[in-house]
Amino acid sequence: MMEDALPRVVVRNTERSARDSRRSRYFSVYSHVDIGGQHGDDATKRRETTTTDKQNNILLQRSSEGGKGINSVKASRLTLRNRLTRRKTLLSRSRSLVDLSVAAACVGVVAMLVETELYVQKVVSKSEVASLTLRISVTLSTVLLLLSVVVYNITTVQLAVVNNSLDDWRLVISPPLVCSVILELVVCSVHPPPLSLQPKLESALSVLMFLRLYLLVRFLVVHSRYLTDTATSSLGALSKVPIDAQFVFKALMSEWPGSMLLISMVAIFSLSGWSVRTCEAYVALAEHRALNETPARDIPEAFWFSAITFLTVGYGDVVPSFMIRDGDVVRSECGRVVAVVVGLLGVGVTALLVAVLANKLQLSRAEKYVHTFSTRIELDNRHKNAAADVIKNAIKLWRMRDLANQTSRGRRVHVQGKLMQAIRLMKDARQTKANIGEAVVGVVEVHSLVTDIACKVEDLKKQLAAINGELHNLVAIAEDRFK
């Protein structure tokens, strides 16, 4: 509207100035008689023409400035649109890269499990083609995993640049970020190589491959509804709450605590049991002994050891070591490390289990109100009964004092004891009722109380304003009468 209106005004002023100039030239050429004031009128018209030209220039300048403002708004909108489109593209790319990395990690872990089981059960040896093929597949999947992790971190940096409206990606790079990327690459690169190594070292590398399963947590984060939902992600960005693994874990624990704990316990039992059994098997193969000579000779024994270690019981009947017939003991360092890790995880999961049970056993607000109401009724009845006993025993004691010669001292002491007990029960019931009333007061009650006080204060302000208005009217009326 501004751009259309301003040129029209400019055209009208230009036409008007042209007509005035033609009119002034006409009078100067065809007039032979000097009419009084004609030269003054020409000067006035020339001044009007100059003023009109100045107005036209000002209007043209304003129209150009308005066009620049509108163009800047359009450019800002286009920049915001590009940013949102770029962010959506980067999120989709990061999600695809996480899927690829999880698939590569799972393929490597499965190939390692198959190769290890075939070797432990002595189905194949390390020099056969099947074992070599499986180990090469583990290496290839590891290379693909490393590439996907590198590209994912690059995409994360680009996403941070877009989210923070930065001009250079180097502003996002920080020492903690570099250390986390290096640690992630080291964790993902650990795997048993295709070449044959010492059995103890190969067992340790095989067990450490389970560390790459942390990518499952990242998979849950990028595919969670908290990150895919636009409203939730926008609210988190406005509130400066990062939607990361910690946030998703807390949300899942608040929604499905039992399922999360059960999945965690089953995963820890499975991985730790297999790891202990693999460490013991490689030690047995290194010492050229049979697998049944080890304490954790099979999967059930390994799971029993994992269970008693996880629950921090530790009976000691199964230990991560290999016994040799001549009395020497060969220790399994891999099994000991697994036992320590399982014990620490057991302590953490047990603490979470206690917290979840404590939260589940708490009464809800409605249940707490019902329980408090019934308890107050019971305490009121107890207080009334105790008060009745006080009155009854006081009357008895007063009558016994009047009939001191007819009642024994033991009888009076007995009635006096019952009176003191009734007084004590009455005081206890009153104190318990007061404590229950204080315990029921929560955030909701305090909020309602503060709201009621605020409403009453507003009403008082309105009443005071009305009273002040009436007083001013009375003062004005009194002044008018006295005048």
UniProtKB/TrEMBL annotation:
Q: Where is the signal peptide?
A: none
Q: Where is the Potassium channel domain?
A: 279-361
Give every Calmodulin-binding domain span: 378-447
Membrane topology for this entry?
Multi-pass membrane protein
| Superkingdom, taxonomy of origin | Eukaryota
Show the InterPro entries listed in the entry. CaM-bd_dom (IPR004178), CaM-bd_dom_sf (IPR036122), K_chnl_Ca-activ_SK (IPR015449), K_chnl_dom (IPR013099)
Subcellular location per UniProt equals: Membrane
The record lists the membrane-crossing segments as: 96-114, 134-159, 171-192, 204-221, 303-324, 336-358
Any one GO CC term of this protein is: membrane
Provide the protein name: Calmodulin-binding domain-containing protein
Keyword field: Ion channel, Ion transport, Membrane, Transmembrane, Transmembrane helix, Transport
Q: Which GO terms describe its molecular function?
A: calmodulin binding; small conductance calcium-activated potassium channel activity
